Amino acid sequence: MNPFFWPVRIYYEDTDAGGVVYHANYLNFFERARTEMLRHLGFEQDQLKEESEVLFVVRSLQIDYLKPAKFNDFLNIVTTITDCRKTWMMFEQTLIRHDEVLCQAHIRIACIDALKLKPKPIPPFILEKLT
Amino acid sequence: MNPFFWPVRIYYEDTDAGGVVYHANYLNFFERARTEMLRHLGFEQDQLKEESEVLFVVRSLQIDYLKPAKFNDFLNIVTTITDCRKTWMMFEQTLIRHDEVLCQAHIRIACIDALKLKPKPIPPFILEKLT
Amino acid sequence: MNPFFWPVRIYYEDTDAGGVVYHANYLNFFERARTEMLRHLGFEQDQLKEESEVLFVVRSLQIDYLKPAKFNDFLNIVTTITDCRKTWMMFEQTLIRHDEVLCQAHIRIACIDALKLKPKPIPPFILEKLT
Amino acid sequence: MNPFFWPVRIYYEDTDAGGVVYHANYLNFFERARTEMLRHLGFEQDQLKEESEVLFVVRSLQIDYLKPAKFNDFLNIVTTITDCRKTWMMFEQTLIRHDEVLCQAHIRIACIDALKLKPKPIPPFILEKLT
Prior knowledge:
The structure is a homotetramer of 131-residue chains.
Chain A: E1 4-9, H1 25-40, H2 45-52, E2 54-65, E3 74-84, E4 88-97, E5 100-113, H3 124-130
Antiparallel strand pairs in A: 1-3, 2-5, 3-4, 4-5
């Protein structure tokens, strides 16, 4: 599958007193990009919850902070699914400024039952689109 | 009723690139203090939701930012209920550093039905404690 | 001046356990819209800080929460400057879903010296564009 | 060195529409605990910045989300320094509810020059206390 690109603008809310983006907030940017990638593939998470009773949740992640993003930066998030199994997917996401990588993450997303909150197979109509 | 005091420490997450606390985050501090005041009076909001089917939500607020709070500040929140009616309460909350007022807010909290999300009378056993 | 429109998508980061947007986060949306309005008029806040040594900060605000915004909502922020004086401006901002007003705020923004953090006249080349 | 314990209460601001703590917010809790551990050892980060011209920043982290934290939970953060070198330290941090581990992270913190934002040796008077 092709990488998915999503832009992000840095606002005051994203920064901290160090003058750069607060480290936890990069996870918000990556979450937004995964949501938009799913939407781009035709999946709305609120509908998936209602109709297929599944939620996608972060199970683990590894992140490297290489260079800081700053207020007013206009950046790109590059999102790729690197692995997709029965109940989880692996995303690679990088935050870039022009051709500079600011931050890189590997994020494991689990598919869980929306009520029982237990692992559940990714619905076939989603799997099909992801692979 | 006596004012209720609750401390707050300022961490990096609370600040922005201006070097001071980001304006929206003061609302978090006030929310924490209202939660702790209710707890102090014997009310846990998750139990109120389960057992009495009520939620307390912010209906409107007015806030003045007088002096900025900074990273590492150790502050106090002073919370008073200034009015309490059938379906809402009025809080006055100030954030202070020693005897200096940094920020002052008047916040109207509505009692709503946890399912219908419509106004609902504050349960009598709560009203009794608040007035 | 014409109202300025800016879209906002609601992500998980914006919501709380009540299932709707957490009340403090509406202030982020309004801040983003003010930043984009200034950008639209040709002003970048990081340049204003560097070159004109001014910061725009929230001095006070009043906000009414009328209907909750929810996960996945795609909303519009309507921003108008209703008053503009020597050292401050008054914004009216509403968050709308189609023709429904979810939230409305009146926000006073002060112009301050970026170093002394004291009130400072709005630079004439900005005032000119704002009025 | 002994593990350092720091409590955390879960408020509305920490949760999302899934009804549990939003995944990025766990990083805030761990940051607070590292700040408090340094304070407990006698180091205030604002003084370190002013007087020793050093900042401690997150360079990379790995985090496992095992069980969700919920609104109103009262939890503990257990913080240990597992490695300490010339310009960085490795923290292991777990978030626990009674004897249940909710979340576990390994976080590499780099010491950088507060002005040049480049790696800088951890000041000897800090290293001494950390090892």
